[in-house]
Amino acid sequence: MGKSPFIMFLVIAIILSPIVLMIQNNFVYSDSPFLTPQYSSVRVDQILVKDFNYSSNDNIYIIASGNYSQILDKLNNSLHYLSPDSKLITPYEYLKMFNETLQNYSKPLIEEIYNKILPLHYLYGNLTFEKLIILSNFTYFMYQLNVSYGIPQGKFNSSSTQAVLFKQIFFAQPGSLLEKARNASLYVFRDPFILLFSFMNYSNTSLAYRTIMNFSNYSYLIYLLTGKSIPEVALENPYVYSEKLVYSKVNTSGLSISNFHKGDQWLFIVQVPSNESLQNIENFISSINYTVTGHLPVYADSASTTESDLRVIDIVTILLVAILLSVLIRALVPIILLIISAVIGLEIAYTALYISTFLGYSIYYISGLVIPPIVFGITIDYSVLFLYRYFEEVSKGSTFPLDKAYRNARRAILFSGLSIGLGFLSFLISPSPLLKNIGIALVIASLSALIPSILFMKSSLSVVSIKYLKFPRKQLPSSIDIRQQYLSKVSRKSINYRYIVLASMILIAIFSYFVFIHGSTNGDISEIVSPNSKVLVGEKELNNFFNYSVDYVIIRGNPNQSYSQIYSLSKYVIDKGGFVIGPAGIGRTLLNTTTELTNFFFAGNYTLVEIYISSPVFSNQAINFTENLIKMGYLVGGANAERVDIIDNTVSIYYSFVLPVTILIITLYLGLVLGSIIVPIRLSLTLLLSSLFGVALLHIIFGSVYWLSPLIVFAIMYSLGIDYDMFIIVRILEEEGNEEERIVKSVESTGLAVTAAGLILAGAFMSLVVSNMRFLQEIGLAVGLTILFDTFIVRPILVPAVMSILKKYNWWPKTKTKS
């Protein structure tokens, strides 16, 4: 073959290395790129912008200690790190803005109360004027009293028109004597002051005069006339009274300067566009050196943690893999070639990802982080398979050992690689934007391993002499060692005790499934940042300050028709310690009936209710509260709702669509290639066992785990786990003898490659444990232990036991054929 291909690969490795070093700059940490109108939270945001003229902004919360003026100056001086649209809001400005908002929404309530009091105010004015008229012509008033209370008792008689009319009305009415007298008097004389007297006190002129002269309780008189109890101050100045009444009720959110100032600590808020650059936020945070938290600072901190973790993970992966290779192969040059092969695979994968960004692809940071262990593991797995095939052919004295090893290894590698790629294909056809994104990275990672493991290994082995491959040993690394004796012994034992093995594994599967369905997951920000993160410190400290996050609830239709529903929602929020701004409530004040305020929150056939949750954004309490609102059937928007939508939608689609389709694709593909229905079904079931075992371990070790961790374990095991089984199956097809002997021989002959590959892949994932992010620690440990379980328990013990039970039916409907 010559040296040219080998040199070409080395040149490519050098050329592509800068992309690997800078790829992290292209990672996306926010969920925003994956939020589409299929999510209700996105539809709510669109309604807010279109119908209610809301702007799309996020808040950065800054907790600073020291002198107020100095803090303010420092923050203003650092604002240039953020976009020009960013705005610093001081504690006093926020309180002013908030109170003005409440006051603006209070105006319709004030007008409504004022309009109700206004007729009584006019009545009050008329009564004060009437009092003056009475005092100026008191003789006539005494005449009214005599007619009103004297005639009914027969103590006064008059033939005046008014007296005659009074008698007609009096005798025509039902009721008590006093009621009939007063009603008839009001009808004839229309003087409310008559009501201050009765049959017992009407005839004493001096008493009557003093009563009128000293009278001031107009509220009482108006109550007698209208049945409405109104304080005097409301009658005198109804608008001022209405203002005070409304403000005293609606300004009960509990917000005051104490929500922004504790001891020498101050809480400031910086409002930024929702698409603010995370690098800008990181620069801003670094420049002020205060405690910062919020929606975007969480992602910025996660980006910073990921950047430092990625360097450490790559180094640890290489070191760990090198140590494992040293133990397994114990020859320097093959180890170097294997590591170079893995590095080339990683460079190809990251280059492909980088190129895809020009086609609109966003590299989700999780997609970028899982690539190194996958590529390192798969590439070295395949390369080890090729290498051992080559060593085996050389040891047998084959003519053209490299060509023969290349043909045999290439078939197994391509077969396995395509199986893995197809396993990840279900992600690409998923309706979940996030799963599609991760799927693209997984497919690229799996396919990137094929080029170096086949072509680079062939080109390198063609130019490296056998004597160098031995160094420092005197002989080539043997394809037969003590591990094969162990695997042969174990596989024979498992065949002898096949039913006990099968029963034991079924029990493990049942236990694992029980743990899986009862295990809890979370979307806690502590999973995606360092445990010592200032963002976490800020979230805890924020509980002592203004610790509210906002949900926006949209209800279709006219609020007058759905008022009872709006009222119930508002009451629910207030009862839970939050407050609302909406048709049925302002602050913590509930409005029992529709008011003039109702229409202020109605636009485009939608009603808006702003809900202030008494927990910081992304906190477990805020997420749970928002999730409850969604379960109650409301359309909810805001950062919390977006988070809930992403998590619920992704998890639901994975288990209801992606995982079943993955199993179906792998089963159909292997069935077509192998001509067997049983082998693919058996393989899928054993992969399910390994995956369930891994997720069960995840919950047992960590308790509540990050919501993506179980999905990643399933995804990786259901694709990468195909490798080792297929190595065994392909070898069985090459072996002669009865079914059980072929099974034992295949486990024995592939044992070295399978165990080496399993240890290396497990080691590659275990490197994630050194991360500062608990989420990556969960994935690394769970996948690593699951691969070891699959490598040393499922493949050498369970697979031989099951295949020995099935015997010739393994290959049904075909019989086994030699490839």
Automatic annotation (TrEMBL):
Localization per record: Cell membrane
InterPro entries on file: MMPL_dom (IPR004869), Mycobact_MmpL (IPR050545)
Membrane association type: Multi-pass membrane protein
GO cellular component labels: plasma membrane
Domain Membrane transport protein MMPL stretches: 288-458, 656-815
Keyword annotations from UniProtKB, A to Z: Cell membrane, Membrane, Transmembrane, Transmembrane helix
Spans traversing the lipid bilayer: 310-329, 336-357, 363-391, 412-432, 438-457, 497-516, 653-678, 685-705, 711-730, 751-773, 779-806
UniProt-listed Pfam families: MMPL
Source domain of life: Archaea
Stretches of the chain forming a coiled coil according to its record: none
Recorded family membership: Belongs to the resistance-nodulation-cell division (RND) (TC 2.A.6) family. MmpL subfamily.
Name of this protein: Conserved membrane protein
Source organism of the structure: Sulfolobus acidocaldarius (strain ATCC 33909 / DSM 639 / JCM 8929 / NBRC 15157 / NCIMB 11770)
Phylogenetic classification of the source organism: Archaea, Thermoproteota, Thermoprotei, Sulfolobales, Sulfolobaceae
